[in-house]
Design goal:
Strands 6, 7, 8, 13, 14, 16, 17 and 22 form an 8-stranded mixed β-sheet that branches. A hairpin with a 7-residue loop joins strand 1 and strand 2. The chain starts with 32 loop residues before the first strand and ends with a strand. The relative contact order is 0.18. Helix content is 19%, strand content 27%. The chain has 11 helices and 26 strands.
């Protein structure tokens, strides 16, 4: 089954000229969603679509009179202060809106004159949370990350036997998820040094990032009615970049027997733009397992998931220290990876999350877990890159890091590229560490 349609045509150009620039994150083939308002204004947040370096104000478009029927209903939903209602309309309505906007923004569109007045420069905008996140679950889908971290915390038993059978996840804290640009104070908590007789309390000394993808649920399901894997894609609105900050020393002391708690719930940061799964259709790739590994159970298997279940999203993580920022130096690249290495697919995560009857709601967020690749330099966290803090990373300006220091800003970016299709991007997610409160 092909999910490619006219909106993916690489030859399409837009009358918004900045969308036609090579390697632009937001060409007409992308059209991701966010909520925004003009910087410093008292305007209400509303939905917008990125096109080049501009934002198409969907509230203004809804008032333009250009559209009707299902598309107009979707525009009205996107005019609200959050995208929850739009997400809940489901893939059919969102696909209709995407097609209408694609046609309206194309070079030669008769709607150009009206829509030009609905544009706001991204440079003049500030972003809100794209939706109200009712629930947040973080998965653990990179077998390379799980093995590397497991070897640090449990040298004799790094990968627990259930990992290759069940998509592992835990419920996180949605109230501390923030939008790109988030700054947060270094967390405090209990830690216990290996040679100490008892734990101590104080600021985290081993603060880390995690390079992840965020998955937003679209249409929900009724409690007690699991989402089948053949239907899972219809329940996903889109993907974003996600940094799940982690306090590794707090984590090491608290994580047994119930798993992550205060080491994970103090802050998480998402990118403002949500790239729809329809936009990502050309960059789907086959999902497979090594022949010697357990193959997914029947409820986690389908022919489509095997043929096109994974997404090849190229990911990169950079570090900007306070010294770099003050000197005007460029951020330093730490690692690159790809979401295609995930041991479990998006559809498998959604299906497993609901298999016990759990009700999913529009705007619920799933974290993919740290997306590390098979090579050491593809690691998605400092914990892995520094081999548990044993090997410092040397930065171009002469600084070194084992874990994050106060003033450090972590920058994550993502994009998709494939021959015969336009390159599309996710923008970036940025977060900055502040000193612990006294």
């Amino acid at each position: 089954m092909s999910l490619i349609n006219e909106t993916h045509d690489a030859s399409l150009t837009s009358w918004v000229s900045s969308a036609n620039v090579e390697n632009c994150d937001f060409p007409i083939q992308n059209l991701p969603f966010a909520t925004f308002k003009r910087k410093g204004s008292n305007e209400a947040l509303r939905g917008g679509v990125a096109i080049g370096d501009q934002i198409l104000d969907l509230a203004q478009v809804a008032q333009s009179g250009l559209f009707s029927g299902e598309v107009q209903d979707a525009l009205q939903a996107a005019s609200e202060t959050t995208l929850n209602k739009l997400m809940g309309l489901g893939s059919k309505a969102n696909s209709a809106l995407r097609l209408a906007l694609s046609r309206a923004l194309r070079t030669g569109s008769e709607q150009q004159a009206t829509l030009e007045s609905c544009l706001v420069a991204q440079a003049d905008a500030e972003y809100g949370m794209p939706c109200t996140i009712g629930d947040y679950t973080d998965f653990y889908t990179s077998v390379y990350h799980a093995t590397a971290v497991g070897s640090l915390f449990r040298p004799d038993n790094p990968l627990l036997p259930n990992y290759k059978w069940v998509p592992i996840g835990y419920h996180g804290r949605s109230s501390t998820i923030g939008i790109s640009g988030q700054s947060f104070h270094r967390p405090q908590g209990q830690t216990k040094a290996p040679d100490a007789d008892e734990p101590s309390f104080g600021p985290c000394k081993r603060l880390d990032y995690e390079l992840e993808m965020g998955i937003f649920i679209g249409k929900g399901n009724e409690m007690g009615h699991p989402i089948k894997i053949t239907d899972a894609d219809d329940h996903v609105f889109g993907l974003c970049l996600f940094n799940d900050w982690s306090a590794r020393d707090i984590q090491a002391w608290e994580y047994q027997p119930l798993g992550p708690f205060l080491a994970k719930n103090f802050a998480s940061t998402i990118s403002p733009w949500i790239v729809t799964t329809e936009a990502l259709a050309p960059y789907r790739v086959a999902f497979s397992r090594p022949a010697e590994d357990p193959q997914p159970m029947e409820y986690l298997s389908s022919s489509f998931n095997s043929e096109q279940g994974s997404f090849d999203v190229q990911l990169e993580c950079l570090l900007e220290t306070e010294k770099m920022r003050n000197a005007g130096d460029d951020a330093a690249l730490l690692s690159k990876s790809s979401f295609k290495h995930s041991y479990w697919t998006v559809a498998q995560m959604v299906t497993h999350h609901s298999v016990n009857g759990c009700a999913m709601q529009p705007g619920d967020l799933l974290g993919s877990g740290t997306q590390s690749g098979p090579e050491h330099e593809e690691a998605g966290s400092l914990l892995e890159l520094t081999r548990g803090g044993k090997e410092a990373i040397s930065l171009p300006n002469g600084e070194e890091r084992k874990f994050l220091e106060d003033g450090d800003a972590v920058i994550m970016r993502g994009y998709c590229a494939k021959d015969g299709f336009a390159r599309i991007g996710f923008g970036e997610v940025v977060g900055t560490v502040l000193p612990a409160l006294k």
